[in-house]
Amino acid sequence: MLLTIPTAVTPPWSTMLGFSLLPAVVMIAGAALAVWRAPGPKLRSAILHFAAGVIFSVVAVELLPDIVQHHAPYEVALGFGLGVATMLGLRYFTQRLEKKEELGDAGNEPAAGTRATALPGAASLPWGLLVAIGIDILIDGLLLGIGFAAGAKEGTLLAIALTIELLSLGLATAIELRQDGHGKGRAVAIVAGTSLMLLVGAGIGTTVLGGATGNMLEIVLSFGLAALLFLVTEELLTEAHEETETPLLTLAFFVGFLLFLILGMVA
User: Fold this and answer.
1) Between the chain's N and C termini, which has fewer beta carbons within 10 Å?
2) How far, in Å, CA of 260 to CA of 264, rounded?
3) Is 138:201 a contact under the CB 8 Å cutoff?
4) pLDDT average, residue stretch 54-80
């Protein structure tokens, strides 16, 4: 039996482009802030906790009810399984790239008793890190497209949630590049180039998935549900817990959840 789902109110391309640009611009702003005055580890952990709470709230308030109410267990199982498999596969791939990058850096270390000379702008690009970040941002853009496929409200809330996440990612990436010896301008430029993957992902998600209906839409939404849960539990909170946990940091998660719970109710 074909599942029938009411057609979502899809916003015009100009609106979706604007909401796709917002996280990308904020990511670049985060990088610029990091090279000017890097935030402390506790502030970054608070941002990550808050972002995790926001995204979890969007999942619980907007996506999950739409998925459950249509009673399509086979489609949900298929989409959710594909989402988990994809995220685990991407994690395995990006971890291999990062390990290869680390082994390459270790092989290029100066011999004992010698002193390394760092030339401004001469640092090589950490391709393993950048590819991993690029794939992560591409998936974020794809999820944004899925959000808009579900409806304008879902896409808008998800865009705001991803904006907070990419602010933290821009901060972390710029700090990493600066530690590798890249200049301030170059670090921001690299982050800006990487942020374009969000627009690519959002374009793919909106173009390919924007017209999905019925069973296919249920599979797409379930895929996005799994990917977002993976993002919260295995990326945002994992990085947030690198800093010693305090009640205030934990509170940031629940503040983010409550804020978007209320926003989803009144919007």
Assistant:
1) N
2) 6
3) yes
4) 86
- DSSP for residue 243: S
Alpha helices by DSSP H, listed for 210-246, are: 214-230, 237-240
Question: Residue 67 has which token pair?
Answer: 């998925």
CA angle, 193 as apex, 191 and 194 as ends, to 5°?
65
Phi, then psi, of 211 in degrees rounded to 5: -95, 10
- Looking at residue 61, what DSSP letter applies? I
Distance, in Å, from the CA atom of 229 to the CA atom of 55, rounded to the nearest integer, reads 8
- pTM to 2 decimal places: 0.71
At 149-205, the pLDDT tens digits run: 777 777 888 888 888 888 888 888 888 788 778 888 988 999 999 999 998 888 887
Q: How far apart, in Å, do the first and last CA atoms of the chain sit? A: 34
The alpha carbon of 262 is separated from its chain's Cα centroid by a whole number of angstroms, namely: 23
Write the single-letter amino acid at 49. H
CB atoms within 10 A of CB 243: 17
